[in-house]
Amino acid sequence: MLERLLVTGAAGGIGTLLRHKLKPLAKTLRLSDVADLGHAGENEEIVPCDLADRRAVRQLVEGCDGILHLGGISLEKSFDTLLGPNIVGVYNLYEAARACGSPRILFASSNHVTGFHEQNTLLTADAKLRPDGLYGVTKCFGEAMARMYHDKFGQETAIVRIGWCAEEAQDHRKLSIWMSPDDFLSLVTCVFTVSRLGCPVIYGVSNNDTIWWDNSAVSYLGWHPKDNAAKFRDKIDAAMPRPPRDACDAVYQGGKFTIEPIH
Amino acid sequence: MLERLLVTGAAGGIGTLLRHKLKPLAKTLRLSDVADLGHAGENEEIVPCDLADRRAVRQLVEGCDGILHLGGISLEKSFDTLLGPNIVGVYNLYEAARACGSPRILFASSNHVTGFHEQNTLLTADAKLRPDGLYGVTKCFGEAMARMYHDKFGQETAIVRIGWCAEEAQDHRKLSIWMSPDDFLSLVTCVFTVSRLGCPVIYGVSNNDTIWWDNSAVSYLGWHPKDNAAKFRDKIDAAMPRPPRDACDAVYQGGKFTIEPIH
Amino acid sequence: MLERLLVTGAAGGIGTLLRHKLKPLAKTLRLSDVADLGHAGENEEIVPCDLADRRAVRQLVEGCDGILHLGGISLEKSFDTLLGPNIVGVYNLYEAARACGSPRILFASSNHVTGFHEQNTLLTADAKLRPDGLYGVTKCFGEAMARMYHDKFGQETAIVRIGWCAEEAQDHRKLSIWMSPDDFLSLVTCVFTVSRLGCPVIYGVSNNDTIWWDNSAVSYLGWHPKDNAAKFRDKIDAAMPRPPRDACDAVYQGGKFTIEPIH
Amino acid sequence: MLERLLVTGAAGGIGTLLRHKLKPLAKTLRLSDVADLGHAGENEEIVPCDLADRRAVRQLVEGCDGILHLGGISLEKSFDTLLGPNIVGVYNLYEAARACGSPRILFASSNHVTGFHEQNTLLTADAKLRPDGLYGVTKCFGEAMARMYHDKFGQETAIVRIGWCAEEAQDHRKLSIWMSPDDFLSLVTCVFTVSRLGCPVIYGVSNNDTIWWDNSAVSYLGWHPKDNAAKFRDKIDAAMPRPPRDACDAVYQGGKFTIEPIH
Amino acid sequence: MLERLLVTGAAGGIGTLLRHKLKPLAKTLRLSDVADLGHAGENEEIVPCDLADRRAVRQLVEGCDGILHLGGISLEKSFDTLLGPNIVGVYNLYEAARACGSPRILFASSNHVTGFHEQNTLLTADAKLRPDGLYGVTKCFGEAMARMYHDKFGQETAIVRIGWCAEEAQDHRKLSIWMSPDDFLSLVTCVFTVSRLGCPVIYGVSNNDTIWWDNSAVSYLGWHPKDNAAKFRDKIDAAMPRPPRDACDAVYQGGKFTIEPIH
Amino acid sequence: MLERLLVTGAAGGIGTLLRHKLKPLAKTLRLSDVADLGHAGENEEIVPCDLADRRAVRQLVEGCDGILHLGGISLEKSFDTLLGPNIVGVYNLYEAARACGSPRILFASSNHVTGFHEQNTLLTADAKLRPDGLYGVTKCFGEAMARMYHDKFGQETAIVRIGWCAEEAQDHRKLSIWMSPDDFLSLVTCVFTVSRLGCPVIYGVSNNDTIWWDNSAVSYLGWHPKDNAAKFRDKIDAAMPRPPRDACDAVYQGGKFTIEPIH
Prior knowledge:
homohexamer, alpha/beta, Rossmann fold, seven-stranded parallel beta sheet, 8 helices, 9 strands, about 30% helix, about 15% strand, globular
């Protein structure tokens, strides 16, 4: 059990889903975001912080022995919007961690670092980086930063390429990339309890019927996701047609991100 | 759901097993063979056709939006016997499909395209072609044809290297290659419902205890065979001795096909 | 069912665990060791033997149609201690087998032939040999001997790199390498009943939550271990702290063997 | 030195280039084609033959201890045109060889069996088959036939995927695929003099500056092509513009074959 | 021949070495830097530009049909120093290129994106990214940007992981990573004259005796470096001792960069 | 330059060939063997030693900063003959080296550790061990010992799988495996002068026309063999017939060793 687990981006979608589930992992949860986090619950600390503010990030990390880094932008946005949280912010976080005893980090990367791979390709952790937009490029940057701090300073990071973490899968593509909050929780637990983590790349996805990603390289973690997006298939089929075979949502793992404009 | 699914070779072993099971997949089943197919049932059309007859095949394919190509010879036979249905017939089918809007095809290939691999080798879709007879060579031809029509015209085909599809496994080798009719049905369903198929190679085999083939490259299809030939093991053990270790049935994946004469 | 299964090292840890379980595999169990084996039970023969004694080994193997070779030293010991049983003894065993009709052999190799691989690496049968001590080096010798007798004389051997076979896993590393006696028994059964064995490398480990080894290359054997060391996790967590991340028990697959002195 | 080397397709482009160069390889050259071969020179035999005529092929092969199989169509043609020489003819040749002591065969396959790979991909002998037309599909058939006769009957064949064998490279794509007649001759010599050939796939190409194919898997043959198409670059640059980057001649290894119609 | 080749970072080390050599490649060289470039020579344009200034970069790229992007910081520096030229600057460059018809780009990446690989490891283009400092991380970012613009917009880039480009190799590590200016020039020529470039990763290194990098994946480019750092070995041996085996200069490909502090 | 290079097996075939060539590598050559070495030349020390004598080996190694370990049996012999020099002797040598500051070792392994691979297979350092006799098995043991001392104690060893080192190649198989004494000398020089050696596997073979082994994994050593056995081909062709295709000398890399009896 951790003493104090920092959760950045705690007001975001995933942060909100996990906030209560994470309690058993640490004596104190330090929740941080630029958005409002409401009142601190039991064993919670609320520490607002702009990731681009180096000094603030340094204080944020102080005293934590684990970091769940969900912070930053997780959508395709303009470069100027991404630069602060996803580029500068990642550097700030790793420097702060280095100054504070190198607490283990789970870095929320994204399937969009490999979004231009086709859906009929099974990716392993060694898959070539093929980001599908500026957001994906910033996550490639973050992965490279994590790796460098590992090789240079021994900083451990679980690089988790999250598919789509939500209560439900809402379209056909998400049937393959959905990760239930409970499965993410069990992954977080594995990451913070394994004796030696290293700096692995992990695809964050449930045990869905249709699979694009192979996590066998990290079977040492003992993570066995239990949920399966197949239970949403009928509802999705009823709500919308399957994408035609040449639609980006059927061709590329990154789906519509591959056609988002750059600006 | 398809409008009209063409089933070639519908009077053969597999065709007969699947005829009734396929009904939910299409509004109309168009059943074809050179052998007698009996009376057309509800939602069935019977269209006799010699695959070597180009014009007839063209008419056969017209109006279908899916093709389950079980037709052709599926045993080691003389070259002259195989030439019409398995060589000329495959060309005729693909040309007809091209003229008719390129309906998706499931091509019944065979484990005999890789039959000279040893049984203690796990094959993936990339395995070297090692056909075990003329029949296997014609199936290599068919696979090459499918791939070419995919690259050149976008024709989608599921190349299914069928092990042994029957109600039962009847000898020791078949314990490893058996595919239940229900598992084949679920594969057919996956093939015709996935948004984007491409032109994958799939080993057609149930979830048997002993496995020679690795389908992880097509996990995007979401096919999870459920049956297991292990249930036939005791009956087979009682009925016949295990093959000795140097018998073709114990050495090669293709079993006795590897010692069939050529003529 | 075998006529007579020779079990060497039958008085050792694994031999003792399996002695009664092995009965269904053979009409007669020939149990051998340098240590006391007690009285022969029903269908048992007790044949004391020093593996370094060529003539004795020759007599020991005579009349057996299967060999479970658990004999030899299975701990890091001085070179002079290992030389007789693990080097000379292995040669004696294979020569005896060659003289006696080449009965199939299960050779108890060890995870210590690859003990210097890190725990966050998934090994296949092709993994580079990285022995973690003299014991591991002698097992590399045994594996090479097995392979040579296979290529040269057709001798079949299952090279089983045993993790930790015991009733219980007693520390954190063993949660990943534990093999239950029942799972070992089912492996022995597969090895002696498959029609054609060849000379495969198999990792001897149960179906644990945390996995370092990939046995998919031998899925033709149909071995499906059922037990899972995860059931011991709480007890271990209660009994001792997790090893720190830089301890040999957390870094290397071979654990403490990697720091045993050489003498 | 061979007793009698059969050269099929001897009146074709490559056959004509090699006719005189081949003399040192055999005491007698048996030249065959459906087209006129002129008068037999010294140590030459002229044997006209239609490859689709089984009986004629059987007589053609009789008495030969080596076969250079250049025969058949080597352009994209209609299926009906290709069927006789490239499908039936190949079967006839292999059956005749089997009846006549299995003389070693060099089978002229083609880069068009892999023509849909992109030019910026380095292919090895294991490259996936991606034929670029019916011609390429028939060559896939021939390769499969060669492999089957090897596995089943020990027939040795050098499968040579010829790029473009001519005195000169005449366009930009050919700078990468050109094989000089002298380099082909040295390959033929290696194939017929190595003690054990097996059934290798060899890319038939000179030592050009720009390379798409990797022959290191057959370095046991000792073939070291000496010529380099780079010497033609200036002439080609002067004669025509480089193809634009999206032209089939710049994208695909098969060049214009990829856009040839099927009929 | 290009109409106008933009050279960024033209006042830097490599830019200075190549300035005169590049003349035959383009009718006009547009030289740019934040540092002084002296007077424009014949067929030269001098356009000072700060890469972090989006509007200026847009004007800089206008009218160019090729870009040799040497600009940015090429040493380990503070994050704040690198951010403008190596992160913002790369985005600015690719956006400008997209607005200006996507002229082909040679992006000067660095061996420091893989600097934590050991010197006794042969890297291919697929090697895992292991940057050795912040500089290396920014180059990983640039490579990801190049790849994304390729997949999304068809922008072609040669990603050249430069070893050490200078007139001379001055220490033992550089004997393996040295690239002569002439060899770089021939690479630039290949990159801008090949019909189809794609987005390859190329290691920028001469034909040295000791090699850490394998460029066979880009043999389609026809680049054959001619120089060999071995000619500097005696001079280096005379000037300094070989690094001891555990010095970073002997262990890691990135040499001293691996021990540079982060700030 | 080394202070004192120990050469074991100095009276053997290779030792005799290299004795004078090695002088420039070390101030003193310490030559050792059980056979007579004649008088010590300038800068030579003669130290007779039985490798199986632990104490003697300890004294032999004392004071040396490099070891060329040619000692031991290099032919297929009885197990009892091999046991002392090739098993016990290797252990003695590594223990002595550990006690004496871990001088770098070149261990003369053999192509017979992979002798059961076929001649038409290109082996890399990762090739599966397939020893062709007891001699090969003992060399597998030595390679495992070298690797263990590297992983455990940092001992550096060049594992050189020597083909056939002699003034001349005398039969057809040796055309592929011959290593000239000069090429071996240049390898020895590379091994003892590279800053960091590690524990690589190197195939000891000249730059022959026909090649079975790929040394690209050790290109960091900068070894470029210059000689080519092709110059002996005519003489060999004149002296003896090529082996028939199914002779062990044509099938297996290990040649006749594969049919040597075991005793």
